[in-house]
Amino acid sequence: MTLNAEQQREVELLTRLEAGVLDVGTAAELLGVRARQVRRLRVRFQQDGMAAVVHGNGGRRPANRTDPAVVERILALAGPAGKYHDLNVCHLQELLEHEAQITIGRSTLDRLLKEAGLRQAAKTGPPVHRRRRARRSAEGMLLQSDGSPFDWLEGRGPKATLIGAIDDATGKIVFLGFRPSEDQVGYLLLLRSVAQHYGLPMGIYHDRHTILRSPKQPTVEEQLAGQTPMSQLQRIMAELGIESIAAYSPQAKGRIERLWGTLQDRLTKELRLASISTLDAANSFLPGFIERYNTRFAKQAQDPQSAWVPLPADLDTSYYFAIRETRTVRADHCISFAGQLLQLLPDPKGPSLVAQRVSVHVVPEGEIYLYHGQRQLTYQPVAAPHAMSSQPSAEKPPPKLPPDPKGKAKQRAWLFGQH
User: Fold this and answer.
1) Nearest by Cα to 41 from 30, 52, 50, 31
2) Rounded CA gap, 328 and 323, in Å?
3) What one-character DSSP code corresponds to residue 97?
4) Is position 330 within any domain?
5) Could you give the CA distance from residue 165 to residue 112 in angstroms, rounded to a whole number?
6) Do 153 and 45 belong to one domain?
7) Rounded Cα gap, residues 289 and 400, in angstroms
8) What angle do CA 53, 55, 59 make, to 5 degrees?
C-alpha cells in the first residue's frame, strides 16, 4: 500500500494516539477535524491498520468522468488537423453542442485542451485604466455603429467591410451587413433596416468618417442662416430626429470595437465552416448568426420600457432613406440625372413644374424617385437626343470668316479650328 504525505502524517498521529502520547483533543486539533471523527478513525485504525486513512473511493472511476471516446473525438476536432483547430474555448464549447451534439463544461473542456497541449494560457498585456461609461438604461436610447474592413472570407472570396450597429443598453446586434467597402449605401441600409425592424433610436454614436459627418466648413450664407454642412447620412438622421454623436477616439465607442474583435474570431471561422465564399452567401448567413449571438451575449436593459420610436404606418421610406440631390425642371418637363433623361408625366391636379427644383431620391437598391416637396412625382426615362436617331448627323461646315482688314486671319483660324 502506497500512502501520500498527508496519509502518512495521519498514520503517525493515530499511532501516537494509540500509544497514549496524544489525547483525543490534541489529535483532533492536529488533524483539523472534530474529536468525534478522531474516535471513529481510531476504531477503524485498530481494525484495518493503515488502510483506515485511505478514502473508500480511492482507485474508483469518478461517476462524472468524461467518456474517453468523447474526449478522443473532441481532441480530434480541436487538434491541428481538426476543423475547430483555431476556435477559442467558449466558441468551441458552443459549436460542439450545436453541431456535434457534445455537451461539456467550459472549464472541463479548457482543462482537457491544455492537458493535451492544444491550447495555451492567454497572455495578458499591461493594464490600461480608463473611466468607465455606464450603459444607457433602455434599449433604443443609443446605438453604436461602425464599419470593419477585414478579410472575412480568409481568401476564399473578396475582402469586404462589415457594417454594423449594436445597442448600447443591451449589447444586442441590431444590424450587420457585408459591403465591398465602407460606403453610403451600407449605412443607408443600416438606418432603414433598424427603423423597420425596431424603430428609430434616440441617438447614434459613430466615428468621424466623412460619410457620417461632413468635413466642410459653413459658408458665410450658411452661417447667417444658422446652417451647417451635412453629409447625406447626417441629413437623414436630422430629419428623423436621431441625434448624431461623433466620437473622438475608438475607445469612446468601445462596445462596438470589442464586437469587431469577437466577430473577427467567431464569425470568420463560422463562415469557413459553412464553406461560404461570396458576399451574397455571407449576408444570407448573418441573420442566423445574429440570433445565436444575441441569445448568447445580449443583456437585459435596466429599464424594461423600450425607447425605440416606431415608424408611422404611412411613412414613405423612399423619401427619407435615400441619397438626395436636386435638379431644375427644363422647359420640356425633363431633368437630367446620372446620364439619364427623365420625363415628368403630366399631373392634371398639379401646377407646372417648369423651372422648379425637384428632389431626386436614390434608394439603396438603385431605384430613383422624384419629389416636389414631399409629393412624389411620376416620370418615365426617355432616350437622350443623340440616341433618338440612328443616322449619323452630317458634320457642320466651318463658319464663314468675315473680311480681315486688320490681319487677324491667323488668330481666327486658331479659334475656329482651321489651323
Assistant:
1) 52
2) 17
3) H
4) yes
5) 37
6) no
7) 74
8) 125
340-344, strands of its sheet edge to edge: 334-337, 340-344, 379-382
**15 close to 43: Cβ distance less than 8 angstroms:** no
Cβ within 8 Å of residue 324, ≥6 positions away: 232, 235, 359, 360, 361, 362
Residues 155 and 272 in one domain: yes
CA angle, 399 as apex, 398 and 405 as ends, to 5°?
125
Same-domain pairing of 206 and 162:
yes
Q: Which amino acid is at 344?
A: L
* Set of cell numbers at residue 84: 475547430
**Residues forming beta bridges with residue 341, ordered by sequence position:** 336, 382
The identity of residue 355, as a single letter, is A
Residue 408: pLDDT band with limits 50, 70, 90 = very low
331 and 198, same domain (yes or no): no
SS3 of 356, please? coil
Q: Residues 324-370: pLDDT tens digits?
A: 999 999 999 999 999 899 999 988 878 889 999 999 999 999 999 99
Determine the angle formed by the axes of helices 89-98 and 106-115, rounding to 10 degrees: 110
Tell how strand 323-328 and strand 357-362 pair up.
antiparallel
Please tell me the predicted confidence (pLDDT) of residue 176: 97
Burial class of residue 311, CB neighbours in 10 A (0-12, 13-18, 19+):
middle
Cα 303 to Cα 306: distance, rounded to the nearest angstrom: 7
Nearest to 11 by CA among 41, 34, 32: 41
3-state secondary structure labels for all residues of 109-164: HHHHHHHCCCCCCCCCCCCCCCCCCCCCCECCCCEEEEEEEECCCCCCCCCEEEEE
CA distance 244 to 257: 18
Q: Tell me the pairing of strands 143-150 and 160-167.
A: antiparallel
Dump pLDDT digits (tens) for 10-59. 888 889 888 888 898 988 888 888 999 889 888 888 888 888 787 766 66
CB 85 within 8 A of CB 117: no
Residues 155 and 258 in one domain: yes
* Cα–Cα distance, 336 to 381 (Å, whole number): 10
Whether residue 323 contacts residue 366, with contact meaning beta carbons closer than 8 Å, is answered with no
